[in-house]
Amino acid sequence: MPVWLSTVGFPMAPPVPNFDPTSLVGHAVYGLVLGIGYAVLE
Predict the structure, then answer these.
(1) Confidence of residue 35 (pLDDT cuts 50, 70, 90)
(2) Which end of the chain is more exposed for a tag (fewer CB within 10 A), N or C?
(3) Could you give the 3-state DSSP secondary structure of residue 20?
(4) What is the dihedral of CA 22, 23, 29, 31, to 10 degrees?
(5) Domain extents for the chain?
(6) pTM of the model
């Protein structure tokens, strides 16, 4: 995403590599909930 934002000219693109532990936890929780929901509904 940071590379794409820089390419299109977004002035405040985050640096590369862009690592945010909060985002990592959020994505992990989302995937876990999605996986459990799929298993239950399947």
Answers:
(1) very high
(2) C
(3) coil
(4) -160
(5) 2-41
(6) 0.61
The structure tokens listed for 34 are 């999605």
CB atoms within 10 A of CB 6: 14
- Tell me if 2 sits within 8 A of 13, measured CB to CB: yes
- Please report where in the chains the tokens 């995937």 appear, as a residue: 31
Output the DSSP codes for 1-42. -HHHHHHTT-TTPPPSS---HHHHHHHHHHHHHHHHHHHHH-
Evaluate the CA torsion angle 16, 19, 20, 26 in order and state its sign: positive
The predicted-structure confidence for 16-32, as pLDDT tens digits, reads as follows 777 889 999 999 999 99
